[in-house]
Automatic annotation (TrEMBL):
The keyword Oxidoreductase belongs to this UniProt entry's keyword annotation: yes
Name of the protein: aldehyde dehydrogenase (NAD(+))
Subunit structure: Homotetramer.
Organism: Brevibacterium luteolum
GO molecular function, one term: aldehyde dehydrogenase (NAD+) activity
EC main group: oxidoreductase
Family label: Belongs to the aldehyde dehydrogenase family.
PROSITE patterns assigned to the protein according to its UniProt record, in alphabetical order: ALDEHYDE_DEHYDR_GLU
Length: 510
């Protein structure tokens, strides 16, 4: 395996940022208490350091965003949509360059990185359409000469916190709709994905300027947890959309709820797929391998539990183990690589701890789990995706480990399999592989996840459908035809044109 040099990765970074109008070298500063490292999981090395925001500067950004909102909310929605439309076109023009930044920071293969930028483009297209379709309702009034209706209005400042594994797409899911709805946005990206955030934000700022939008329509905060806490605690932030771990959600959720702010949380996923005896074996194999090993197991929709009928479990698991042996692992900048690095040492340590716990709870590691390429990249963490046969859904299986571990369990009764699917705290994505229509319908009716698929894996989603989950996943919904409503406030209006003043429910007063 050939690994890129530090200079080669920095050159990729320069190219990606330059396409977005940013000079990489001008961003860099000396290492200090007021700076933050710019890591790349490809080699594990630091590309440089960048100055960070403080809680004080974050609060100033909220004030600027609130001022911009006062102007933006009065702009007609179809006109607001033109900013989103222009952003989408800029993303198309610079798709490859922005994808380079995603590869550098998240370790995604070029195909996966380009796919993430394509999600940004897709949501822009959806949001432009929504800018002319923010429909309210008109309802019959029980009082003569009255009109009863519902209307939607811009909400305010929207704070967005995102995670490293999808460094730009969730930002666009929220931002494209929020801007079309008349809101302003402040983005606090993961500390591990600052560069791609700078690029995506700069392209939006360019679109906003070209279309004559107010200054400070979109702002970016660089920093650690303390900066994100400002967005959670500041009453001027009307909606906080946060993507990350369940502990992160537990930390920010009460802060927002205490001030009666709105929340949109996209948290953990511990996703399962059921494979029935009637399933197409080849389809199930390909669906499971990509969903479990793609992005080195670092998707919220990664397949982590495979529940296979006892009649076919040995055959299917044998094929999965064989397929894992063919996966190319290495630097995502190299041609043909399918599995890139873990984000860092903590992810590797968590994976090893989970494998040890699985073995202590009766599991058998059938393949993978070890570190590879340590001599080539001693500061990076590449691992072989693991398959672990479990006697049942033990404690470690019920916990989400953000690494490529696939736990395999068997079943004999479909109702029991669906119960296993539901018997975890998380509720993001699930799937069944079957050629039996009745089994498919029973699964769709019984699965308690926000996303439930038939004959396709748990990962990969289109922006036309609502994305989000239940239980500890948070309950939020991003993308999809109705998701714009999260970024607006709803009002019920009664118009009396009768010249009389009848009261509802037949109440008599004067």
């Amino acid at each position: 395996m050939t690994f890129p040099s530090q200079d080669a990765i920095i050159q990729l970074t320069r190219e990606g940022l330059a396409a977005c109008g940013i000079d990489f070298d001008s961003l860099l500063t000396e290492q200090s208490a007021q700076s933050m490292p710019l890591p790349s999981p490809i080699t594990g090395q630091i590309l440089g350091h960048i100055a960070v925001d403080t809680p004080e500067s974050a609060a100033e950004a909220v004030a600027k965003s609130q001022q911009a909102f006062r102007q933006w909310k009065d702009v007609p929605a179809p006109v607001r949509g033109k900013v989103v439309q222009r952003w989408g076109r800029l993303l198309e023009e610079h798709k490859d360059e922005l994808a380079k930044l995603v590869t550098v920071e998240a370790g995604k293969t070029p195909s996966e990185a380009a796919g993430e930028v394509q999600e940004m483009i897709d949501i822009c297209e959806l949001a432009v359409g929504q800018s002319r379709q923010m429909y309210g309702k008109t309802m019959p009034s029980e009082r003569p000469g009255h009109r009863l209706m519902e209307t939607w209005h811009p909400l305010g400042v929207v704070g967005i916190i995102t995670a490293f594994n999808f460094p730009v797409a969730p930002y666009a899911w929220n931002t494209a709709l929020a801007i079309a709805c008349g809101d302003t946005v402040i983005w606090k990206p993961s500390e591990a994905s600052t560069l791609s955030a700078l690029g995506a934000n700069a392209l939006l700022a360019q679109a906003a300027k070209e279309e004559g939008a107010p200054e400070n329509l979109n702002l970016l905060l660089v920093g650690d947890r303390s900066v994100g806490e400002v967005l959670a605690e500041d009453e001027r932030v009307a909606l906080l959309s946060a993507t990350g771990s369940v502990p992160m959600g537990r930390a920010v959720g009460p802060k927002v709820q205490q001030r009666f702010g709105r929340l949109l949380l996209e948290l953990g996923g511990n996703n399962a797929a059921i494979v029935a005896p009637s399933a197409d074996m080849d389809l199930s194999l390909r669906g499971a391998v990509f969903a479990a090993a793609g992005t080195a197991g670092q998707r919220c929709t990664t397949l982590r539990r495979l529940i296979v009928h006892a009649d076919i479990v040995d055959e299917l698991v044998g094929k999965i183990v064989d397929a894992y042996g063919t996966l190319s692992i290495g630097a995502p900048t190299e041609n043909g690589v399918l599995v890139g690095p873990l984000i860092g040492k903590k992810a590797f340590d968590d994976m090893q701890s989970a494998l040890e716990a699985a073995k202590a709870q009766g599991g058998e590691v059938l393949c993978g789990g070890g570190r590879v390429l340590a001599d080539d990249a001693p500061d990076a963490y590449y691992v072989e995706p693991a398959v672990v046969k479990m006697p049942g859904q033990t404690e470690i299986v019920e916990a989400e480990t953000f690494a490529p571990i696939l736990y395999v369990m068997e079943y004999t009764d479909l109702d029991d399999a669906i119960e296993l699917n539901n018997a975890v705290p998380q509720g993001l994505s699930s799937a069944i592989f079957t050629q039996d229509q009745a089994e498919a319908e029973r699964f769709l009716a019984g699965s308690d996840t926000g996303i439930a698929n038939v004959n396709i894996g748990t990962s990969g989603a289109e922006i036309g459908g609502a994305f989000g989950g239940t239980k500890e996943t948070g309950g939020g919904r991003e993308s999809g035809a109705d998701s714009w409503q999260a970024y607006m406030r709803q009002a019920t209006n009664t118009v009396n044109y009768s010249g009389e003043l009848p009261l509802a429910q037949g109440v008599k007063f004067l």
